[in-house]
Amino acid sequence: MEAKRGQFPRFYFLSNEDLLEIIGQSKDPKPILQHISKIFEGIDDLRYSEVGGRNQKNYKIEALISPEREFVDITPILVEAKVESWLKKLVTEM
User: Fold this and answer.
1) pLDDT tens-digit map of 6-40
2) pTM of the full structure
3) What 8-state DSSP symbol labels residue 7?
């Protein structure tokens, strides 16, 4: 877990249990969303869509949602197997 935190320092804001849950579900944004506000201040949710067929589900992050329900559209980010990779892209888009 320290290696993951080293690759994405915002993981230091999470407990070990939360981080394990995120790492275990890295290609599915739904379980990660319950922790997104701990990782990014001012982001309460992400808008995403499914891409691909039944056999190969992928997700694309399309917008940031604030606690006040304000939407900020971003260049779509494909959710990859390495959660720290697509979260870094999300930071770049911010």
Assistant:
1) 999 999 999 999 999 998 888 888 888 999 999 99
2) 0.85
3) H
Average pLDDT along the chain: 91
Domain ranges within the chain, ordered by starting residue: 2-93
Residue 15 three-state SS = coil
Tokens 């804001």 locate to 13
28, 41, 70, 76 from 47: Cα distances, Å: 13, 16, 11, 10
Q: Per-residue b/e over 39-50, b at no fewer than 16 CB within 10 Å?
A: bbeebebbebee
Neighbours of 11 (CB within 10 A): 22
Tokens of 74: 């971003």
2-93: CATH topology = Split barrel-like (3.20.180)
